[in-house]
Structure formats: structure tokens, C-alpha cells
Amino acid sequence: SIHLLETIADRGGATLRDLVQETDLAKSTVHKHLSTLQANDLLVKRGEQYLLGLHHLSLGKRAVEMRERYRVVEEEIDELRNRIEADIDFTVEENGRLILVSEATRTMSESIFVPGTKFYLHNTAAGKAILASLPQKRVDEILDIHGLPERTNKTIQSRSVLLSEIDGVRQKGYALNDGECVEGYRSVGSAIMNPDESVLGAISIGGPSYRIDRSRLEDNYAELVREATRNLEKKLG
Questions:
Q1: Residue 118 DSSP code
Q2: H helix intervals, 94-181
Q3: Among 126, 127, 178, 217, who pairs with 121 as Cys (CB 3.0-4.6 Å)?
């Protein structure tokens, strides 16, 4: 059922035939799953196509509301949005992947990602900042499970290179991403620590490389993102 939901989400809608081909399951089995999902408002059918039900909006909203600390982070993002012309994201690590929780987009007319979008940790500024804040055992577990999938020709493909960069992140307090996840997009990220020294998530600031050069990223935005995470850690404490 989960695989069907994710397939429908990825495709922007799918027919029964599409899903049978995708899963290699019997038509009757797929139809049974779809009927159950539809009966529970997780899917709707428009003609021959199945679409995600709007009940997912309620579930997603509740998922965020269950984590009260996220609201404090979103208030900080709102403050940053009024100060700079850049994209500001709040992401968290779950099950070894980076999940977009909320964002403020200023460099494009609309975001190409939606809350809940999953990324890898090794090719994003926020992800590398989080890796630098996790125990080494957890870092190794994540890399063993998810590897280092290549997204652009700048994506780090060597574990030793990644670990060396993570060491540098620990010293600087922020991580950089220069076209490693999305071509032509740069960002800087810093992790937010809970009072018990666990990682809450990360804030990143970025935008298209034609608008944000490396010097602005490192000289200006890096300090802003560190300031934001320091403020949050005081509030959360």
C-alpha cells in the first residue's frame, strides 16, 4: 500500500494498469489495496486515474504539530525571510534521509520541492551539517544503508572525501553545497542541537548560483545561518 501511494505521488497520478506494471502484482491484489486506501480517504479516483487524497494534508499538518519545537524554528525562519533575498529551509533527519519540513522561498516564483520531500544527507548543506553533528556510529549506519547516490557531477562519491569534509564542518559550524544536489544551486547549512545534544534538524540558506556567489555564501549567509541556529538553541534550552 505504501509503495502504491509513493508511486502515485511520484507520477502525479496513476491508473490501475500503471500500478500493476510498476509492482508486478496481480491486478486483483493491486485493486484490493487501492480500494482500501480509497475507503480511508488516502486516495481518490478521477476517471481512470488514482490521485492522493487531501486527507494527507491533515496527516502532514498533524505530524508537524506533534513536534512542538518545530514551531519555534519556523518563527526563526520567518524572521530570516524578512532580512534576506534567499531561500531558507528547515529540514530534519528521519531514518537516514533528510526531510523538508518548511521553507521560505525568495529566489524563485515557487519552490520545486514540497514539505515532506526526501533528500540524501551527503549532497546537501543541511544534510552534511547534520552528519557532522551525529555520532560516528550513526554516520556509518546511514552511509552503509543509503550509500552516496550521484545527483550531479559534483556529488561526493567517496566516503573518505565526505568524512574529511564533515570534519571541516565540525570546525566551522556550517556546511556548504555547491551544485551537489541540484545543478546550479548553492546553499549553506547549520545544525540545530537540542539541550540533550541530540540533533533537532538544520537550517539552510541558498539560491541559484547566478544570484548567489561563493563569497556571499561563505562571508554573509554562513554567519546568518549560524546566528539563527545559536538563537534557536538558546530558545529551545
A1: E
A2: 125-133, 136-146, 159-172
A3: 127
- Contact present, 64 and 57 (Cβ < 8 Å): no
DSSP letter assigned to residue 91: E
Residue 158 cell numbers, joined: 567517496
* Sign of the dihedral defined by the CA atoms of residues 125, 127, 133, 138, in that order: negative
- Sign (positive or negative) of CA dihedral 126, 192, 227, 82: positive
Q: Return the exposure string of 132-169: e unless at least 16 CB atoms fall within 10 Å of the residue's CB, then b.
A: bbbeeeebeebbeeeebeebeeebbeeeeebbebbeeb
Alpha-carbon distance 179 to 172, whole Å? 20
* Cβ atoms 104, 81 nearer than 8 A: yes
**Considering the entire predicted model, what is its pTM?**
0.80
Backbone angles phi, psi at 173, to 5 degrees: 90, 5
SS3 assignment, position 42? coil
Task: Burial-class residue 15 by CB neighbours within 10 Å (0-12, 13-18, 19+).
Answer: middle
The half-sphere exposure of 235 on its side-chain side, counting CA atoms within 13 A, is 17
Residue ranges of E strands in 22-131: 43-46, 49-52, 87-94, 97-104, 118-119
- Helix (H, G, I), strand (E, B), or coil: what is residue 50? strand
Convert the pLDDT of each residue in 82-129 to its tens digit: 888 899 999 999 999 999 998 876 555 455 677 888 999 999 999 999
Enumerate the β-bridge partners of residue 103: 89
